[in-house]
């Protein structure tokens, strides 16, 4: 009887740890999604799509010309 109770406690501890990790991961993904809502690259700095978007924006708004060929 004692061994069964001990095994159940270990199972509950493992279950709790998995649930905490799952909730933490989901919260982190939601935070990242909301914090980069207007950025199609989700904050990626080296993405070619982001460079193309900046060049298109510079062509569209000549008063805000920036050197995008860095």
3D structure, described in words:
- This protein has 70 residues and is mostly helical.
- It has two helices and no strands.
- The longest helix has 34 residues, at 2-35.
- The chain is rod-shaped and about 75 Å long.
- The N and C termini lie far apart (71 Å).
- The mean pLDDT is 77.
Give the secondary structure arrangement, pairings included.
Layout (H helix, E strand, L loop, with lengths): L1 H34 L12 H13 L10
Q: Between the first and last Cα atoms, what is the distance in angstroms?
A: 71 Å
Secondary-structure content class: mainly alpha
Secondary-structure element string: HH
The shape, in one word, is rod-shaped
Largest sheet: none
Evaluate the radius of gyration.
24 Å
Note the quaternary state here. Answer: single chain
Number of strands: 0
Strand percentage: under 5%
Give helix % range.
55-70%
Overall pLDDT, averaged?
77
């Amino acid at each position: 009887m004692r061994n069964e109770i001990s095994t159940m406690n270990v199972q509950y501890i493992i279950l709790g740890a998995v649930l905490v990790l799952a909730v933490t991961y989901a919260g982190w993904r939601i935070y990242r999604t909301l914090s980069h809502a207007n950025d199609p690259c989700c904050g990626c700095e080296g993405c070619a799509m982001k460079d193309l978007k900046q060049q298109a924006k510079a062509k569209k708004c000549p008063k805000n010309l920036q050197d995008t060929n860095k």
